[in-house]
Amino acid sequence: MKNSTLGMLIVIAGVLTIFVKHEYAWIVSAILIGGGTGLFFWKDKE
What we know:
The chain is mainly α. 70% of the residues lie in helices and 0% in strands.
C-alpha cells in the first residue's frame, strides 16, 4: 500500500475520532491526523 493511501486512511480515522464522546478523544485525533499527514507527504521508494 502506498504511503499516500495509508496516510489518507489515518487522517480520516483521526477526523472521525474527534466526534467520539470521550474526554481525551481530541488528543488521539491530533496524533492520528499528524501521523497521517506525515505519511501522506513521505516520498515512496520505488
